[in-house]
Amino acid sequence: MTITIDEMSTFCKKKGFIFPNSELYGGMAGFFDYGPLGVELKNNIKREWWRSHVQIRDDIVGIDGSIITHPKVWVASGHVSNFQDIMLSCPKCGNKVRADTFIEEQLKISADGIKMDKINELVKENNLKCPNCKTQFAEASQFNLMFKTNVGPKQDESSIAYLRPETAQLMFVDFKQIIDTARVKLPFGIAQIGKAFRNEISPRNFLFRCREFEQMEIEYFIHPDMKDCPFLSDTTYKIFVFSAEMQKKNEEPRLMTLKDALSHKIIKSPWHAYWLSTEHKWFVSLGVNPDHLRIRQHNQDELAHYSSDCWDLEYKFPFGWKEMEGIADRSDYDLQQHIKHSGKDLSLFDEATKSKVVPHVICEPSLGVDRSFLTFMFDAYTFDKERDNVVLKLHPKIAPVKLAVFPLLSNKPELVAKAKEVHKEMQQCVNCFYDTSGSVGRRYARQDEQGTPWCATIDFETLENNTLTLRDRDTTKQVRLNIIDLRTSILKLLNEELKFDQLGAPVKN
Ligand code: GAP
User: Among 84, 246, 283, 345, which residue's Cβ finds the most Cβ atoms within 10 Å?
Assistant: First the structure.
């Protein structure tokens, strides 16, 4: 069953995943707080991403830059002059809407990358009016999305700074220190996870477009002559591809191998093929259905000011196919801009070619944490008619709670004591929850709804032979297990992704 974005937002609030920010005071559009379950899921997503993109690779190092940086960074990057959306304003009631999304909704056409003149033309032609008071809109205008603040006690133009609208620039600004200290060799990447802020004109669709969000980004640097990607080994991997050409010709996306996409020059760079498939595989490895994923190339009008080619990894949300991650070729745009504006040398000595070079960012995988969160939630959300409750089939690696422990009856002190003991022990290795409230069936249902993959129940047989039942969320199958084997079994299930059937024969410590 597919639920709408509003139903998902209600579900997340009810279960303690996400709360609208400062609801006590009427709320703030575009800001959200992660609740007790949400923060666990979000941290697990970030941990999995960092582990697979940084820690298990030899070619990527991480940083954690500050949110407020020197304002010249944003002049050099082009954000001060270019990071804007087109806005329509009502001269009567003051209502402001983001022009492209408003036009898409009203006229049911794609408005990606639409220009100011075209917007004014469409508004006039179609007599589009303010949805609040039905007054004619004023001419469209540009609106810069960066949040401004003042640094220090002097509150004037000289102290203006910006909250970063992307984490990316920190990787360029710290570039010299990173190559001097981490002794990286081309090709290499710099990764970062952190907050970004955009003063979106019309925040909407819950976490999808908010004003404060998090990004997981990599700037991947190569020597500009290095056209081939040494990591692209498996070109038989299949993805739904939607190129700019296919969009222009009104064709449907096609499932194709990377090999075919490259040989037909649909994906031009092997680096793009590598990063797109790496990101696609990451989502699939964490349980996302590949039929709900596709890659879409930006058409020329859509490209950001720094990008010469860009593909998005998109997910089939209930409100349409939408970008989760952008993977852009940024060339040497940013490093050259910072060289120009800072007057500093940001080239490096490339051992392979024995020459100084300003490296190119061949790919910038830029993924939103909050959009990933939403993707995992939508893909996991299932309503089980037989059980008559929601089953959140989150991959165990990202599930907020891994194991719930219950005494069969809460009024039997021997069962309670044993269950508490097991819970305490298991808390040492995984996020573990203890519950006594309501019937066991009700407790299972509550855990299903929050995505807990396994529940352990202590019953009367436990007191006789030290075994418990372990129940699997997705199949509801139960096996009897010796308590001493529980820790090994859960860790094994988590780390090796064993099937539930294999649980009966746990490996001893
Ligand atoms: N450094 C490149 C960059 O920032 P982007 O396409 O503007 O590129 C990258 O953003 C990702 O950040 C998006 O694919 C999306 O997942 C996330 N993102 C961007 N704006 C967002 C917003 N207003 N709310 C939530 N996530 C957002």
Answer: 283
What is the dihedral sign for C-alpha 77, 81, 87, 90?
positive
Between CA 477 and CA 316 the distance in angstroms is: 31
Q: State CA 219 to chain mean position distance.
A: 16
The residue whose CB lies within 8 Å of the most ligand 1 atoms, and thus the one to mutate among 211, 298, 306, 323, is 323
Q: What are phi and psi of 124, to 5 degrees?
A: -65, -55
CA atoms within 13 A of residue 158's CA, in its CB half-sphere: 3
In three-state form (DSSP H/G/I as H, E/B as E, the rest C), the secondary structure along 466-492 is CEEEEEECCCCCEEEEEHHHHHHHHHH
65, exposed or middle or buried, with CB in 10 Å at 0-12, 13-18, 19+? middle
- Is the shortest distance between the CB of 77 and ligand 1 below 6 Å? no
Residue 163 CA to ligand 1 centre (angstroms): 15
Confirm or reject: Cβ of 288 under 6 Å from ligand 1.
no
Q: How does DSSP assign 380-395, residue by residue? A: HEEEETTTTEEEE---
Residue 198 Cβ inside 6 Å of ligand 1? The answer reads yes
| Distance in Å, CA 215 to ligand 1 centroid | 7
Tokens representing residue 385 in the block = 């008619």
Interval 219-266: pLDDT, tens: 999 999 998 999 998 899 999 999 999 999 999 999 999 999 999 999
**pLDDT tens track for 129-182:** 999 999 999 999 999 999 999 999 999 999 999 999 999 999 999 999 999 999
279 C-beta closer than 6 A to ligand 1: no
129 neighbors 122 (Cβ within 8 angstroms): no
Its pTM stands at 0.95
Whether 366 lines ligand 1, by a CB cut-off of 6 Å, is yes
Share of the chain residues as helix, strand and coil, in percent rounded to the nearest 5: 35, 25, 35
| Residue 175, CA distances (Å) to 146, 180, 185 in order | 23, 9, 13
The residue whose CA has the least distance to atom 20 of ligand 1 is 209
What distance in angstroms lies between residue 90's CA and the mean position of ligand 1's atoms? 28
Reading the block at residue 411, the tokens are: 């009024």
Residues in the chain, how many?
509
Structural tokens at position 215: 């990004």
H-type alpha helices, 16-134: 36-50, 71-76, 79-82, 99-107, 116-125
403: closest CA among 506, 482, 490, 465? 490
Nearest CA to ligand 1 atom 14: 325
Name which residue leads in pLDDT, 508 or 11: 11
Ligand 1 contacts CB of residue 310 (under 6 A): no
Q: How far apart are CA 327 and CA 364, in angstroms?
A: 5
Cα 424 to Cα 428: distance, rounded to the nearest angstrom? 7
The atom number, within ligand 1, closest to the CA of 215 reads 12
Q: Using a 6 Å cutoff on CB, does residue 329 contact ligand 1?
A: no
Q: What sign results for the dihedral spanned by CA atoms 288, 36, 451, 399?
A: positive
